[in-house]
Amino acid sequence: MTTTWPYLDVHQSRTHEPTPYEYKLAATLEEVFTKDGHELADVVSGLNARQVHAPDGAPWTEESFRAEMNRLGA
Amino acid sequence: MSTPTAAADHLYATGLRNQWHPVVPSSFVAPGAMRKVTALGEQWLLFRRSDGTLAMLADRCPHRGAPLSLGKHLGDRVACWYHGVEVETDGTVSSVPGLPGCNLEGRKLVTSLPVREIGGAVLAYFGDEQHPEPAGLTLPEPLTDPDVDAILCYAEWNGPWRFAVENLLDPMHGAFLHHESHTMYDGDTTAKFRIRETDRGYFFEKTDQRGVNFDWVELCRTGVDWVDLTIPYPPSAGPGGPFGIVGMVCPVDENRTGVFFWRYRRVTGWQRDTWRFLYKTLIEERHWQVLEQDRVMLEAMPADADQRENLYQHDLGVVRLRRMYRAEAEAQARAAQPAAPARSSSAS
C-alpha cells in the first residue's frame, strides 16, 4: 500500500488486470444492454447470439450467467 | 495570542471541528499495521490491531514529542522509537521502560479520536477542547442501504478542501468541464436554479429541467458533511437505473484534500454482480477520466480564486456553502477564545 502523496489510482476496485475473456464479456454485455434489453433472458440470448460463450465453452444459461457474474462481480 | 479572526481563518482553511470527517480508505491500514496520516492540518497515527480494531492517535509521543508513527507496533500498543514509551490505543501511557514507575504511566496523555469505518473509509470525529465527545452521526443512506451497492473511489488533490466541496455544489460545471464524458452527453447548457432548504442542509437544483444529467445536488450535514447527486446512466451499464454519487472531503491541510466518492446504484442479486463486474472492468476508468478533469481544473485554480470573483445565479449553492462554513468557523473560533480577563481595579 502506497504512502506517497498524492494517491491517484485509476483501478481501485480491481483485484487483477482483467483477462481478454473478461474484457470481451464486459464489452459484449454493454452492447447487449444497449441493443437488446436489461432482463436476464435478454442477456443470455444476446450473449449466445453473439457467439460469446460461457467459461466451459457451452452456451450460456440463466444459471451459468448468474454464477459467473457472482464470481466476477465479487 | 491569536486573534479570533486568525483562529477562524485557520479553521476555515484546515476544516471545521466538532464533526466527523473522512480520513483515508480503510484499506490503507492493514491488520497489524500503522500508518501516518495528515488530517485537518495535524499529524495522526492510524493503528490497527491484528483483529481489525482501529484507533487514531495524535502522532506525538507525550514524552519528548517524537512521532509515534516511527515507533513499533506491539500488538495492542505502540512503542516510541526514541525512548520506548508505550502508548495504548486510548492514548494512555502504559509503560516507560527507561524509568518504570514513572509518573507518566497510567495517564492518558495522547489524543485518541473516535473512529468509525463505513463504506470502506475511515471516519474520525475531530472535537475541539470544549467538545471532545463525538457529535451524533447519521450516515448517508446509500452507504447503509442493503439494496444499494456503493463503490468507493478515493483521490488526493493539491488544493483547498473547500474547492472540492464547491465543485460538487456546482451542477453546471458538468455541462462544460465534463461535456465530453460518457454520462454527461446530454442536457442544456443554460438553466435556472434555486436553493431548497431541508432539515439537514439544502438542495441546489434546476427548476426547469429534470432527469437529464446532474440536475440537483443535496448538501447534507448529518454529523459529517456530504453531498448527494444522481446522474442518468446510459443503457449500456445495464439494469439499475440512475447512477448516484455520495461525495465527502477530507481537509488534509490548507492546500491538500482527500476526496471520497462512493459511486452507487440500486442493484441486488445478479444485477449487482453484473454492475460490479462492468464497473471494475470498463466503467471505473471512464469515471476516473471524468474525475481527472475536476482535479486538473481545481489544482490549477489560484489559492485566492474565491477572493476575486464575479458571481451569478448559478453560484448560489456555492455562496450559501461559503457563508455557512465561514460563519461556523467564526463561531468556533469565538467559542474557543478565553473570556477577556477582568481588568484589575487596582490602579496604584
UniProtKB/TrEMBL annotation, chain A:
Organism in which the protein naturally occurs: Streptomyces formicae
Domain of life from the UniProt record: Bacteria
Limits of the Recombinase-like domain: 4-74
Organism ancestry: Bacteria, Bacillati, Actinomycetota, Actinomycetes, Kitasatosporales
InterPro entries for the chain: HTH_62 (IPR046789)
Pfam families: HTH_62
UniProt protein name: Recombinase-like domain-containing protein
TrEMBL record, chain B:
Keyword Cell cycle: no
Keyword Iron appears in the UniProt entry: yes
Enzyme's top EC category: oxidoreductase
GO BP terms, alphabetized: methylation
Domain Rieske: 20-124
One GO MF term attached to the UniProt entry: 2 iron, 2 sulfur cluster binding
Listed EC numbers: 1.14.13.82
Keywords tagged on the record: 2Fe-2S, Iron, Iron-sulfur, Metal-binding, Methyltransferase, Oxidoreductase, Transferase
Protein name in UniProt: Vanillate O-demethylase oxygenase subunit
